[in-house]
Specification:
This protein is of the alpha/beta class and about 270 residues long. It folds into 2 domains: about 10-40; about 40-265, 3-Layer(aba) Sandwich (Aminopeptidase), CATH 3.40.630. The protein has 8 helices and 8 strands; from the N terminus they run ααβββαβαββαβαβαα. It has helices at about 10-40, 45-55, 80-95, 115-120, 175-195, 205-210, 225-235, 235-265, and strands at about 60-65, 75, 80, 100-105, 125-135, 145-150, 200-205, 215-225. The strands form 2 sheets. It has a 6-stranded mixed sheet with strand order 4-1-5-8-6-7. The chain has a two-stranded antiparallel sheet with strand order 2-3. α5 links the parallel β6 and β7 (about 200-205). The longest helix has about 30 residues, at about 10-40. The structure holds zinc ion (ZN).
Length: about 270
C-alpha cells in the first residue's frame, strides 16, 4: 500500500515542532541554571561570608530538638522533647543575660519540621545555630556528652535540599572551620561544667545543621539510657549547668571570632 501523501506544509510543521521542543529544552536548562544561581545573589549567602570575615555574632538561634508528635528518646516517662525545651529555655535566659539576642525554633511542645528549623535560622543575620538533643544508646553503659558539626553546610539550599539532593554542590573546603570551632568551644565548656564523659566533637551531616548557613552545632547532652546520667538530667541544677555550658561555649566562640575579625582589619562597630 502506498503511504498516504504528506499534506502540503507538514514537513514545515514537523520542523516547527522540533524547534519548539528544542526551545522548551533550552528554557528548562535555563530555569535549572537560574535556580542554581538564585541563592548566590540572595543575602543569606552574604551572611555566611560576613560571619566568616568579621565573626560578628549578635544572635543565637536555639533549636530544641523534637516536639509535638515527635518525642525523641523516651525513658521512664521522661521525654527528650521536654528536656530539650527546658535546656533551650535556660540557654535562652543565660545568653540574654549576657547581652546576646536569641531566637528559638520552638517555644512550646509543638512539631516543627527540620526544614523549617533550618529555614528560620537562614532568615537571620550574624548568628550561630545551636540544636539541643539527648541521646539513647544500645548499651546502658553509654554515657557522656558530645557536640556535632557538619563538615559540609549547604544552607543556601534549604528548600531544594529535601528533593534535589543530587544537585547539592559539595564544598571544596576540607573542613568547616567555623562550625568546628564552635563545636569545640561548646564541647569544652560542657565537659568543664558537667564533668560528664567527654565524647568529643564529631562531624555528621545531620540535616538540621547541614542545611543552616551559619556556624551550626548539635549538642547531645547525655544518654537517657544511662541510669547515672538520667538521674542527673532529672535535676534542674544539671540542666541549668548544661545550658550555662552551652552559653559559655557560644560566648567563647564569639569572642575569638570577633578577635579574628578585628585582626582582619574590620573596623565596623560591633554589637
Ligand atoms: Zn534527638
Amino acid at each position: 500500500m502506498r503511504p498516504p501523501m504528506p499534506l502540503p506544509g507538514s514537513k514545515r510543521r514537523v520542523g516547527i515542532q522540533r524547534a519548539l521542543a528544542w526551545v522548551g529544552l533550552a528554557l528548562m536548562a535555563l530555569c535549572f541554571v537560574w535556580v542554581q544561581m538564585l541563592p548566590m545573589s540572595h543575602s543569606v549567602l552574604g551572611d555566611r561570608n560576613t560571619a566568616r570575615k568579621d565573626g560578628r555574632v549578635t544572635l543565637v538561634v536555639i533549636d530544641p530538638g523534637h516536639g509535638g508528635q515527635d518525642s525523641g528518646a523516651i525513658r521512664d516517662g521522661v521525654l527528650e522533647k521536654d528536656l530539650t525545651l527546658d535546656v533551650a529555655r535556660r540557654l535562652d535566659q543565660s545568653l540574654r543575660a549576657k547581652g546576646l539576642r536569641t531566637m528559638r525554633t520552638r517555644v512550646a511542645d509543638e512539631y516543627v519540621s527540620l526544614a523549617n528549623r533550618a529555614k528560620a535560622a537562614n532568615e537571620q543575620h550574624d548568628c550561630v545555630f545551636v540544636s539541643i538533643h539527648f541521646d539513647e544508646g544500645n548499651r546502658t553503659a553509654a554515657t557522656g556528652v558530645n557536640t556535632y558539626y557538619a563538615t559540609r553546610q549547604h544552607g543556601k539550599w534549604p528548600l531544594l535540599a529535601s528533593w534535589l539532593t543530587f544537585v547539592q554542590p559539595v564544598s571544596n573546603e576540607p573542613e568547616n572551620f567555623e562550625s568546628q570551632s564552635l563545636a569545640g568551644f561548646v564541647q569544652q565548656a560542657l565537659v568543664a561544667r558537667t564533668k560528664a564523659v567527654d565524647r568529643g566533637t564529631r562531624s555528621e551531616q545531620f540535616y538540621v545543621i547541614a542545611n543552616v548557613n551559619h556556624p551550626a552545632v548539635l549538642v547531645e547532652g547525655g544518654f537517657l539510657t544511662n541510669d547515672d546520667e538520667m538521674r542527673k538530667l532529672r535535676t534542674e541544677d544539671y540542666r541549668q549547668q548544661l545550658a550555662a555550658a552551652i552559653s559559655d561555649g557560644v560566648l567563647r566562640y564569639r569572642e575569638l571570632a570577633r578577635e579574628r575579625g578585628s585582626r582582619m582589619g574590620n573596623d565596623e562597630p560591633r554589637a
